[in-house]
Amino acid sequence: MQLVLDYYNYWVCIILMMVGFYGVMAKTNLVKKAISLGLFQTGILVFYITIGKIEGGTAPVNVAAKGGEVIYTNPLPHALMLTAIVVGVATLAVAMAIVVNIRQTYGTVDEHDIHLLEHEMPD
Amino acid sequence: MDLITQNIPALIVVTPLVMGLLTGIFGRKAAGWWMAMGTTSAVLAMAVQLLVNVLNSGTLQVTYQMGNWPAPFGIVYVVDPLNASVLTVVALIGAVVTLFARKSTLNEVPQDRAHFFWAIWQFCMVGLLGITITGDAFNLYVLLEISSLSTYTLVAMGKGRDRRALTAAINYVVLGSIGACFYLLGIAYLYMVTGSLNIADIHHILTTKVYPTWATDAPLYHKTVVAGFAFMAVGLSLKLALFPLHTWLPNAYTYAPSAVSALLASTATKVGAYAFIRVLYSLVGIDFAFSHLHTDQVLLVCAGLAIVVGSAMAIRQQNVKKLLAYSSIGQIGYICMGFALANQDGLTASVIHIFNHALTKGGMFMALGCVAYRVGGTRLEHLRGLGRQMPWTMAAFTAGGMGLIGVPLTAGFVSKWYLVSGAIGAGQVLWAGVVLVGSILALIYTWRCVEAIYFGQRAEGAPVVREAPLTMLVPTLLLAGASVYFGIDTRTTTEIAGTAARFLLGATP
Amino acid sequence: MKDNVLMRVAARWNIPFMVMFALYTQVHGELGPGGGFQAGVIIAAAFILYGMVFGAAEMRRIVPRKVTDIAAVLGVLIYAGTGVYALLNGYQFMDHVALMPSNPGAAEPWGMTSVEYGVGITVSAVMITIFNEITEGTDEPRLGGDTEIVPAPQENKTEIG
Q1: Most buried pick, A121, B158, B192, C52, via CB within 10 A?
Q2: Per-residue confidence at B210, pLDDT binned at 50, 70, 90?
Q3: CB-based contact B317 A123, cutoff 8 Å
Q4: Do A41 and B177 touch (CB under 8 A)?
Q5: For residue A52, how many C-alpha atoms fall within 13 Å in the half-sphere facing its CB?
Q6: Which DSSP helix (H) or strand (E) runs through B65?
Q7: Could you say which of A91, A101, A121 has the minimum Cβ distance to residue B173?
Q8: Is A87 on the interface with B (CB under 8 A)?
Q9: pTM for this structure?
């Protein structure tokens, strides 16, 4: 129990990632798959934020005005995650664009149905 | 001129980025191709110049600080013999395939979106060149995603010819994103330990402060480093389509437009292999990865299985594009086996094979592009009897096939020679045997194509086709000819690859 | 949602404040929390709210595709241009000192400001593009419609395949 409570932020990351990972593998609906992919990425974002956080740390803004002696959270992981969020948004946008196209050409977004349709096509 | 020569490491990435953006706006109609062609030629010139600079510099290293921020704080671009040669491969293939792609994309890519196609084509080059040149682990992730995102889009653009391009693309999106996420997670673990993102700096901190404590009673961060490396290795294996993680590759290569298949098959997975070499040798170090964790055993098994299963799957394909895609999985096995052996010959084989296979497979996919342009399909029956009607294209295809088998006097022979001698040198005779089995399997699937081409008959009533147009034929013959030339005159390639291998093995104490 | 008076009024009231807040985030971006990406997303959110309430067609009327395309490219060109400007003046790529060699300390914020504006323009344009592309061909966007039951989605589209 102590292990759960002490590291609850890490558990949140693990749960988020595993929920996303399960969704990516188990869901047949492509939209749900894309959403799960987003969840999986969110888990990693939270992981980065949590490794940069110091308990009681503030934002590293205007440190000199506060007397110079402040504990602040490492801002680098946040900056990195801003980039990763952009990448995540782009991935999601590409995935959704392809799914919209699949809906238009196949008439379905379910993987099983698509497999059935593809099965009849020659190589 | 000085301005350009001093800033080549930055310009080689920035030029395609800026030109890609401009292509998206001004590249309608024919202008798009001209802009892409101009960019890729400029990039090729810069890559060659960079290779010469690196080989002539005393330290074999050229460093470029972005924004003049010094190494552990800012992003630095580091060029050494290994990535200079990979850069040259990417730039060379990029330029040649762009030349080929003008006619080829005309009936394979929707022409009202052609300017976007050429813009994304150049963004793909940005990503591939950037991955190769960067010396920053997180920057590598970002560029990996730039190249992957543009690749997904390029694959999906094949939807006009075959709608399965879309499902291939979505599969690729899902697996590729998971691979990139795993790599990102791996960096997070190493960042927890070292507090740095610069590849050389991480390596320095790991080898001087972290690894030495492992032999003592108070080992530092053992599990964290192992977990981080494991995530990175799996993520990159997905990106380079190492066997069990290859499932996205065959369909993506098969249903993409021909020019895209040629570009991807000869650059994307090679750059993935390069990134893996970089992580193994320059980031965590082979002492940790191979001597401590024995990753080399896993890699050798995966590579061996990739060679056998990939080649065996290639034999039973009816679509020649899919056949080549499965053969690519086998060829990636050779590359991985080379760097998993971790000796001079093995690593040389890996680097040479990145170059040789890019030439061989690029030429073959372009030959298939010519077939698709004239005949309209790439199934085995489409190739039947084409030996008399498209002699030059088919000669290029056959030369490539010889290279895949590893017939002497082709480029494939050189890399296999080094690979076998590397395997025997490392005492791994079993894996040398696997290489030979792979060659026999390659002989079978190449023979199926050659038999259809030269001994088959065109179907009754099939229209007589002419040789492919010159703008498609010349680049195809160029790559096929180069793959033969570098099989005969091996001095340049072996020397550069040998230097790269020595550098990598020396750089990891 | 066009007929829902509550949504219409709420959107009318909210959008100016959203844009204002976005601009605040943008202009404070170079040295404090905030910056181009956040500002771009907030501006785009204001536009997307407009699009959701008043319809995708109306959205495309006020922000045509040409505008978003050019804005997206322009933003990245501003970003890259900042770097190339330094490069052309004999500094390293992206070395903001080039913008004001006499006072390197002040040059850094100037460079960052320029980069952040580029990012802001591109992000907002791209976000709006994504919204426009996904809602293409739908009169009523089906995003976030929790107050009404949306009829079965576009059966007419299946015929294309």
Answers
A1: B158
A2: confident
A3: yes
A4: yes
A5: 21
A6: strand B62-65
A7: A91
A8: yes
A9: 0.91
Contacts for A86 with CB less than 8 Å, ≥ 6 apart: C37, C123
Which of B252, B276, B231, B275 has its CA nearest to residue B173?
B252
Instruction: Report the residue of chain C nearest B21, measured CA to CA.
Output: C73
Q: What are the φ and ψ backbone dihedral angles of A68, each rounded to 5 degrees?
A: 80, -20
A119: number of Cβ within 10 Å: 7
What chains are in contact with A, requiring at least 3 Cβ pairs below 8 Å? B, C
Nearest to B319 among A21, A94, A123 (CB): A123
**What mean pLDDT do residues B253-271 have?**
91
Q: Which residue has the tokens 């006097």?
A: B409
The nearest alpha carbon in chain B to C73 belongs to B21
Total residue length of chain C: 161
For residue C31, the chain A residue with the least C-alpha distance is: A61
Residue type at position C55: G
**pLDDT of residue B107 exceeding 50:** yes
Report the pLDDT averaged over residues B416-433. 89
Chains contacting C (3 or more CB pairs within 8 Å) = A, B
Please choose, from the candidates B216, B240, B386, the residue with its C-alpha nearest in 3D space to the C-alpha of residue B302.
Answer: B240
CB-closest option in B149, B166, B174 to A105: B166
Q: Is the dihedral of CA C132, C133, C139, C142 positive or negative?
A: negative
Q: What percent of chain B has pLDDT over 90?
A: 50
A20 near B CB under 8 A: no
Amino acid at B180: A
Mean pLDDT of chain A: 86
- In angstroms, the separation between the Cα of residue C92 and the nearest Cα of chain B is 6
Say how many CA atoms lie within 13 Å of A84 toward its Cβ: 28
Helical pair A76-106 and C104-134, crossing angle rounded to 10 deg: 20
Residue of C nearest to A91 (CA): C130
Question: How far is residue B378's CA from residue B323's CA, in Å, rounded to a whole number?
Answer: 10
Distance CA B272, CA B190 (A): 20
Q: pLDDT by residue (tens digit) across B94-103?
A: 999 999 998 8
B191, A77: Cβ pair inside 8 Å? Answer: yes
Q: Which pLDDT score is estimated for A123?
A: 67
Q: What is the 3-state secondary structure (H, E, C) of B288-357?
A: HHHHHCCHHHHHHHHHHHHHHHHHHHHHCCCEHHHHHHHHHHHHHHHHHHHHHHCCHHHHHHHHHHHHHH
ipTM: 0.93
State the nearest Cα–Cα gap between B164 and chain A, in angstroms.
Answer: 7
For B479-502, the pLDDT digits (tens) are 999 989 988 888 888 888 988 888
Domain map of chain B by residue range?
294-509
Question: Is B152 close to A94, i.e. CB distance below 8 A?
Answer: yes
Q: Which residue of A has its CA nearest to C133?
A: A97
Q: Can you list the residues of chain C whose pLDDT is less than 50?
A: 140-152, 154-161
pLDDT digits (tens, 9 = 90+) for B222-256: 889 999 999 999 999 999 999 889 999 999 999 99
Domains and CATH numbers, chain A: 2-119 (1.10.287)
In the predicted model, what is the mean pLDDT of residues B409-436? Answer: 89
Residue C133 CA to residue C129 CA, distance in Å, equals 6
Q: In chain C, what are the domain boundaries? A: 5-145
User: Is the Cβ of C67 closer than 8 Å to some Cβ of chain A?
Assistant: no
Contacts with A96 from chain C: Cβ below 8 Å: 130, 134
Residues 6+ apart with CB under 8 A from B166: A98, A101, A102, A105, A106, B156, B159
CA distance C68 to chain B (A): 11
Exposed, middle or buried by CB within 10 Å (0-12, 13-18, 19+), for B470? exposed
Cβ neighbours of C123 in A, within 8 Å: 86
DSSP-derived 3-state class of residue B277? helix
